[in-house]
What we know:
Layout: H1 2-31, H2 38-45, H3 49-55, H4 59-83, H5 89-106, H6 111-117, H7 121-143, H8 153-164, H9 173-185
Helix pairs in contact: 1-2, 1-4, 2-3, 4-5, 4-7, 5-7, 5-9, 7-8, 8-9
Amino acid sequence: MPRIWNETIEAHRDAVREATINATAALVAKHGLTGVTMSQIAKDTGIGRATLYKYFPDVESILHAWHERQIDQHLRGLVEVRDQTAQGFPRLEAVLTAYAQAVAHRGEHDNNLGDMLHRSEHVAAAHQHLREFIQEVITGAAATGAIRQDIPADELTAYCLHALAAAATLHDPAAVHRLVQTTLAGFRTSDRE
């Protein structure tokens, strides 16, 4: 009986946490970062303010939890793209396309919100994980002979991550596609040109 009780309590906590994060994200999207209060969040979530404060001390902490969830979803999405695509150049292209699309979507956020959310330890760890992941995909493509091998994989990783950061300023999917193709051109071996 105690195990079932603990599982029920944990499920309730997860449900309250998710509802709070979702309600906060919706309110910020509607009213902006400075237009959201804990009272509004409690009302939209359907829980009391005292309960809300047991889970989160302020709006910023809720937004950080939401952002961590978003980052984790993006990284899992990139892994899925990698695992569903043939090795070599097709895998590199698919992963970089998915990444650029995520960057373009992120560019749609309020700049003040983005600045605040990107100052966390979780973001730094996620960036490191992303660099390692992209480098692994590049190394795999190089091993098949699909891309140039005269430049170390860590340098190619830095090149593509910096180049694709420009997707944050693009709102047209065709422009994002062109950016990815231009970036990939830097990976091609001389016999593919």
